[in-house]
Design brief:
This protein is of the alpha/beta class. It has 7 helices and 9 strands, in the order E-E-E-H-E-E-H-H-H-E-H-E-H-E-E-H. Helix 2 runs parallel beside helix 4 and helix 3 packs across helix 4.
Length: about 230
């Protein structure tokens, strides 16, 4: 349902005044089928989030190809895709259309957004006037109102106050269970252990290990422990 074939991504370094580029991903091969729950682990800068963005179709590979079947829903950087000049309601319609929703589905999604976000009259105001938490809350509820065949989740929730985050985690758990394929990026290894049946360990933009959850997490923990011991 989701595959990457010989995928490499070349990006310009953020602090490179001389225009230098680097390979954020190199020679990535993945083949995920229905029932796969893939956890993605690795140090900061190892390529985890870049991998998610490429699998979601947000970032185009420099080399190789991505193929997917069904509806792909990315939960990456809540609020980043919202258009600040549009109202909350207009953003809901835009996001739903981009994810392939029908007119009938859109009405149900709008009703759910009104009920679950608790934003009230703010939904008719430009999103540029929202706080960061309000934008995250809106984007999260819209995304999780759409049935996902392939779900991509990058890190934990930060959508609003504590009470909302607790409800959102319950909602996200149910949403993940319904997805036919899950890709989950997290530094919280207990979350990977709980939700995933296989793990890919990313290092320097490449796959260092790919396999059963327990096996790869054990390898990763041992490497992290060894690194700390050598400092």
């Amino acid at each position: 349902m989701l595959s990457a074939k010989s995928v490499s991504v070349r990006l310009r370094k953020w602090n490179a005044s001389d225009g230098k580029w680097h390979w954020a991903l190199r020679d990535i091969d993945l083949n995920l089928v229905e029932g796969d729950r893939l956890g993605v682990v690795g140090r900061n800068g190892s390529g985890k989030s870049t991998l998610c963005r490429v699998l979601a179709g947000i970032l185009r590979p420099t080399e190789g190809s991505i193929s997917s079947q069904g509806t792909v829903v990315p939960l990456l950087g809540f609020g980043a895709a919202l258009q600040p000049e549009l109202s909350g309601v207009q953003n809901v319609r835009l996001m739903a259309r981009l994810m392939g929703c029908s007119v009938g589905d859109l009405e149900n999604i709008q009703d759910e957004v009104v009920r679950e976000t608790e934003l009230g009259s703010w939904l008719h105001e430009p999103v540029g006037h929202y706080s960061t938490g309000m934008r995250a809350r809106l984007a999260f509820i819209v995304a999780t109102s759409i049935s996902a065949d392939v779900l991509l989740v990058d890190e934990a929730l930060g959508a609003g106050d504590l009470a909302f985050r607790q409800r959102a985690m319950q909602r996200l758990t149910m949403f993940m269970q319904k997805a036919r394929v899950l890709v989950m990026v997290s530094h919280q290894l207990q979350e990977i252990q709980k939700n995933c049946n296989k793990v890919v360990w990313m290092e320097d933009g490449m796959i260092r290990s790919l396999g059963e959850t327990d096996d790869v997490l054990q390898q990763y923990k041992e490497a992290m422990h060894s690194d700390r011991e050598s400092r």
